[in-house]
């Protein structure tokens, strides 16, 4: 990629005439756009009839954009197979869990595992890569578009056959599967892999192992499809490859990005939930360590479709979204979409330019983003995000476990975001790290809401603690096996011996009158909980009322140079918030976390490091203004404005770039 920050949008020139195309490019230049994404829904334009592939138009578009100083991210068009692929071929289509066969006319309607789909997808991808892969205007590739955004696990006949193959490869014999899944329950026992069903319609609920493993099978298959497309592109192009994903989709993002070159995400978080937006940045920074991520899609104003619309951003908010993203490690900030669509199901969606070629309500904010990009670009390019000392684990595999077993309609994304928001508001610089991430450089690790902890994760976390780290485990962590069954030797498996506790009971605390006391705060306890008898550990928080008075819900054990902390239950209510905040800061102190800022909630500090100097980019995200304490005098590297040590006030949606003389 170029040595610059990118600011761009998705563009669909195939939908417009030459006059509009010329107008669009001129307007893009006026708005400061330096990159566009094209092609992801254009399969029928590229191959109107089967085998009749013509990419002349898209080659011309990439060249035309390049001539006008605009780079291109080229997409493979596989989310929208043409009518010749779908008409009269229900066997090629996606089938949902109610066994409804999808029809033509939306997107993601094909089964991506069907061999004919794979054949045709490979063919169109190869043609695009050959035609466009070496063009000077091409800077990157996007595979497909938002895998599993509208669909999840396919229940078609092709998937059934591949499911059986996947199971045989995993378990080798059906006897091992029966033993792992406990299939003697409800006479589920199978005599061959071919008898194992998909988790389609049943009178009550499926076996937990069946449901969770089918999700993992589906996640692996979509990642393999991505790998296949990337391998084809690499034969003809050196440009880096990504996919635009999300924490909301039915994918394993860690696995998906493993074979890709850089990570990107789409987000339509509304302005009143900045934590939902910031979490993506703190997570995507860590899928491809050392490589800046992209925001491939966000709205300049509001998201919408024929069925709904979201509230538009207030003036000023888009700019701070962009500044925060660039500061936290993004290389690009891009919109969906450039010109509003005149037809289809997303006509009302926010855009930069209207169908009639005039600026939209979001356009002035896009100009603000461009002005801010130019002002901060030199500083961003000369620095890197500072290594965080606090990390929290994120796991799409846990998302699958909680989809199978949601308790009271819980989901991993919501639970993690809520926990993350507390860390964010306490001024701790933090990473959200995928399950397989290395833990070097961190001092404090939170691992909440991971029903299953792999032996690999356990080894890395144990090594982290032995070398001086503090690991806070739970709640809802460690109580399930890899096959989504219960442990039989201890409630939380091997984790208990490591943490020096014995779990006496596990049960739902909600409505039980359970009160937990720790750090001189008493608060109600909630969620499915574990209560402990300390062995090598000591009790830090004790249950004072309810069904289990006297047992511990919070323990710690010194292990090597560090500590393992078990949080067995979730404090709730106002007192619960106070207790959790106290817990987080107590163990931040314990772990020696120094990378923290005295900043009001709703305002963030994104620390970056240059050559023997530090930069803080301070951003008010909530529109209420904020206050941050500067540890020493600093200067704005663009304007030369000087800032004194002590309190600094920010206005509504204001940001400041502050360079310090040395390392903090």
TrEMBL record:
The keyword Repeat appears for this protein: no
Keyword line: Glycosidase, Hydrolase, Metal-binding, Zinc
EC number of this enzyme: 3.2.1.23
UniProt KW Hydrolase keyword: yes
Residues in Glycoside hydrolase family 42 N-terminal domain copies: 11-375
Domain Beta-galactosidase C-terminal: residue ranges: 602-659
InterPro entries: Beta_galactosidase_C, Beta_galactosidase_Trimer, Class_I_gatase-like, GH, Glyco_hydro_42, Glyco_hydro_42_N
Domain (Beta-galactosidase trimerisation) ranges: 388-593
Molecular function GO terms recorded: beta-galactosidase activity
Catalytic activity: Hydrolysis of terminal non-reducing beta-D-galactose residues in beta-D-galactosides
Highest taxon of source: Bacteria
Matching Pfam families: Glyco_hydro_42, Glyco_hydro_42C, Glyco_hydro_42M
Family named by the database record: Belongs to the glycosyl hydrolase 42 family.
Protein name as catalogued: Beta-galactosidase
